[in-house]
Amino acid sequence: xxxxxxxxxxxxxxxxxxxxxxxxxxxxxxxxxxxxxxxxxxxxxxxxxxxxxxxxxxxxxxxxxxxxxxxxxxxxxxxxxxxxxxxxxxxxxxxxxxxxxxxxxxxxxxxxxxxxxxxxxxxxxxxxxxxxxxxxxxxxxxxxxxxxxxxxxxxxxxxxxxxxxxxxxxxxxxxxxxxxxxxxxxxxxxxxxxxxxxxxxxxxxxxxxxxxxxxxxxxxxxxxxxxxxxxxxxxxxxxxxxxxxxxxxxxxxxxxxxxxxxxxxxxxxxxxxxxxxxxxxxxxxxxxxxxxxxxxxxxxxxxxxxxxxxxxxxxxxxxxxxxxxxxxxxxxxxxxxxxxxxxxxxxxxxxxxxxxxxxxxxxxxxxxxxxxxxxxxxxxxxxxxxxxxxxxxxxxxxxxxxxxxxxxxxxxxxxxxxxxxxxxxxxxxxxxxxxxxxxxxxxxxxxxxxxxxxxxxxxxxxxxxxxxxxxxxxxxxxxxxxxxxxxxxxxxxxxxxxxxxxxxxxxxxxxxxxxxxxxxxxxxxxxxxxxxxxxxxxxxxxxxxxxxxxxxxxxxxxxxxxxxxxxxxxxxxxxxxxxxxxxxxxxxxxxxxxxxxxxxxxxxxxxxxxxxxxxxxxxxxxxxxxxxxxxxxxxxxxxxxxxxxxxxxxxxxxxxxxxxxxxxxxxxxxxxxxxxxxxxxxxxxxxxxxxxxxxxxxxxxxxxxxxxxxxxxxxxxxxx
Amino acid sequence: xxxxxxxxxxxxxxxxxxxxxxxxxxxxxxxxxxxxxxxxxxxxxxxxxxxxxxxxxxxxxxxxxxxxxxxxxxxxxxxxxxxxxxxxxxxxxxxxxxxxxxxxxxxxxxxxxxxxxxxxxxxxxxxxxxxxxxxxxxxxxxxxxxxxxxxxxxxxxxxxxxxxxxxxxxxxxxxxxxxxxxxxxxxxxxxxxxxxxxxxxxxxxxxxxxxxxxxxxxxxxxxxxxxxxxxxxxxxxxxxxxxxxxxxxxxxxxxxxxxxxxxxxxxxxxxxxxxxxxxxxxxxxxxxxxxxxxxxxxxxxxxxxxxxxxxxxxxxxxxxxxxxxxxxxxxxxxxxxxxxxxxxxxxxxxxxxxxxxxxxxxxxxxxxxxxxxxxxxxxxxxxxxxxxxxxxxxxxxxxxxxxxxxxxxxxxxxxxxxxxxxxxxxxxxxxxxxxxxxxxxxxxxxxxxxxxxxxxxxxxxxxxxxxxxxxxxxxxxxxxxxxxxxxxxxxxxxxxxxxxxx
Lengths: 720, 502
What we know:
Distance between the termini of chain A: 28 Å
Largest sheet of chain B: 6 strands, mixed
Distance between the termini of chain B: 77 Å
Structural class of chain B: alpha/beta
Domain Pyruvate/ketoisovalerate oxidoreductase catalytic (chain B): 15-200
GO molecular function, one term (chain B): oxidoreductase activity, acting on the aldehyde or oxo group of donors
CATH architecture of the largest domain in chain B: 3-Layer(aba) Sandwich
Strand order of the largest sheet of chain A: 3-2-4-5-7-6-12
Domain DUF6537 (chain B): 239-446
CATH topology of the largest domain in chain A: Rossmann fold
Oligomer: heterodimer
Helix content of chain B: 40-55%
CATH class of the largest domain in chain B: Alpha Beta
Protein name (chain B): Indolepyruvate oxidoreductase subunit beta family protein
Number of domains of chain A: 4
Keywords (chain B): Oxidoreductase, Pyruvate
């Protein structure tokens, strides 16, 4: 919330005649504003967090347009928000991360798709798939098919992406069906440009309200027998209407090519990579002029059988380029051709990998196989040699470098208030033995990496306590569930806490109260100290909430107080008191805190105010290079350096300049009885007369006693 | 068909380093010059320090028609590989993104250690030596130097130096001015970033080899005339460590103690093996300057220590500051300052009552404030008392035992003796760390060294086992690997007894 999107907001104000330049997800945001939406909502998650984040800071622009913005507490509430479009001619757009968000939203999605919509309903899902993904790899396609939601997968090019947003609303209205737009993670962050249009105020908006509710209509409820009629509507009216719209608007693109005996059918999102792979074979240029006819599916559901048949007719073979599994499109293509009695061979999975991201490398390999099989007269030996040469080069490099390059998984930020909790868990495990740790989604999941390696399972966002419900009763020792405050409000409060109370659960739950959903880029949650609407706290407090649910054993501990945290954890895990035990580990997200503090501190320093700056350090001479401190912390600013002692060889621990002085090092040294090499300095900037006087006094007396006068060494003129 | 291909730039960085800023600068410069450009990334949002990449394609011709550009790199088709850290450069090479016919590799040679490297119980640092070779072998051209240091010198961020190196390389159709304009337009820390940029620019045009970490040269032989003579009589190779050793021990306890060090060293030196004597000189000095409460107080009060703190923490002349020490000696550590008989009864009492693990004297002492200074000075002043303490007696016995093992082993096999010397590196630290290390040494002594010395085990088998045992002891803090290793080793020695049924 502290990050400023001022620059991004400026580009959302562009109008007719301007050229928009920026990232994919921001272009989507702009296209939404150009589409005359009445309301927008969503739940944060990479890679679509920006959509809502930017709009949150563009409140005055939304006010001008009369757009309502809802920052939802989870994806289910975001999906349910689209209920506004069932009866009213209001366009709405919501966003979340797929596949996990769609899972959470699916109840509302089913019951939205069934009655259908009057106003255009668009769902923008960020596909966290492939390299850098943080969730399991499943296909949004399955949701589109099962619920009859149309699925757009545009070419990763801003004009096409924004066109799909705008025409997505139209498609939704023309077919009374919600539309889902999927964007892969790299497409969300791809930069590009498109000609902007003026933002459009909606017919129905906060500035132009509906006079009253729609007439009662049983047919719009998701209840039998209305649902039987809705099921028929989906298949008999909406589906044909969608196919007609797709054809009429030319949403899928046919690219010509002179090698008419073969063809390629490709998901829009993979088009750019496919074109590069064709270039590698000498079959295309960088401007998309290809020798192989290509059908680009910017709409991947529904498919238009006539279009597929027409494209394939007269061809010896086509290659179906479809990422992910199962191969829904490939199966549908087979069915369409069989039904039309067209005997074109279909290659797909097999020549292309069954699993994994369709990188240019994977596509080049597949295309080489396809061309060699179906067009052997084309000489691809040069492409083959170049491709294999590159792979050979990689192999020799790997042999030379070896397989032991240190991995670098993400870790807690310097000063993160969640780190000390895991240190405390490690220390308690030394005393009472290992415990089952149910991990959750959020920054705290980083404790599953070294040096903590804590966490047995991750079942979903806010699901840790629920996932430990079956473990606890089967084990002699109590289990420990970890949850963030984001996960708590997302659904942990009900699926975890209420359920544990209901079932007399006897586990321990640690809720990390850092005040935001931090892993998604620091957004406000119901228990934040602020709220985007009026800056005030929402008034929803976790302690009060769990007490109201009947939890008796609740402890609120400052997470940096390692000793107290250790005692409390030990007590919670070993006490004879039955029932759910909740520890609220409090400490503000350091990322948010530093953003605020840094500017405050810079201002204070400039205006001559007294500022105390705390840093930690390690005495080289005292450190023996065992690194226990690192194994209990993993702080990025706690690192190692060559041992300056000529007699020792193991590197010594060292605190680098990134230290924010959170104090965890000192707490660990004390709580774990490590070694006396840690020290803390407090340096006074803009000292007052008392600081100067007492400093001089201490220096003088210590000097007189024969100690170091600590006469400061001359400093280079480096600025503060 | 147009044969032109885009210029592909891959940037490997760590989350939170601002790789996006560097990407932005490059994109901005290309746009400014009128070349179609596209970038993309997989940012880790708030997930810090994990490895990540940014990818840019620049169309090398000025055109208004936008080419189809890609969102991920292809092995063998990267023109410029930029890495903000050396192991990340290695990762890029291993992933095939650096190729001899095409790729310019721009990388900073400094290291940011990964958690696995930092948390090893001894030295877990990845050996970057082979990365230099891999970089030379696999890149068309390299620009490698410590850009972190360069950035610090210039007061800029590392990305500015990387950008400068890229501009200086002349690989892109963009001149330095285009990049500089980008930095100015962005408007953040303009002057310092331009300084960093220019530094990188000049290096990009004129490669400078990375400097390897050279161990600081040893100080001149100790200034103890009486002892200097004796050092001179030691083999040349041993003199450096011996000189360092007596310097340390004179400071630690006194001249007589340093003399004892030389007496002990002589008994090993006269066995005639220089390598053995050299390593013994090193470890013996460390073992004899064992860490106790007195030693810690001594070290904490050294004037050069305060000078170092002021340098590291950037304290300005005359600026008030305090240094707080985190000390938490356990009851054992305190009791071990008593005479042996007394210490034994106190420790026995504590153990009976279960206090040993629980009783610690937690102190936060401000060592540059009068009260804290006096406390530490009182402790450091116990130096004269130290030889009467229980810990001293214990340590001397341990050291004599170790030397005895070395000498006995040397009579059988020099390799074995050298390995025994090296086992001393297991014994270090304070409190639990010390106990664990000393315990591990005892286990190795009883189960490998003694059997070898008593001819129950061949010296070659024992030598191999010692190397493995040392690695195992440093593999985990629970002693599990060592336990497994010793168990397996002993099992391998038992003659296989044929089963009656067979």
